[in-house]
Design goal:
Residues 1-50 are annotated as: Disordered. Residues 18-29 have a biased composition (Low complexity). Residues 30-50 have a biased composition (Pro residues). The radius of gyration is 23 Å and the shape is rod-shaped. It is built from 4 helices and no strands. The model has no long low-confidence stretch (mean pLDDT 56). By secondary structure, it is mainly alpha-helical. The longest helix has 11 residues, at 13-23.
Length: 50
């Protein structure tokens, strides 16, 4: 009966593992969009030297 109770417990390792795995892929996808705005800055500096 203890096995059944563990499954219901949100703190159980079985339930936490899937949550962490689902959260990991999300942050990774958010990283790519950040580097895009950076390339926009480099084109501005060349204007100064001209």
């Amino acid at each position: 009966m203890t096995d059944e109770k563990k499954s219901d417990i949100p703190g159980s390792a079985d339930t936490e593992a899937p949550k962490l795995a689902a959260e990991a892929p999300k942050p990774v996808a958010a990283a790519p969009p950040k580097p895009k705005p950076k390339p926009k800055a480099p084109p501005e500096p060349p204007k100064g030297p001209e």
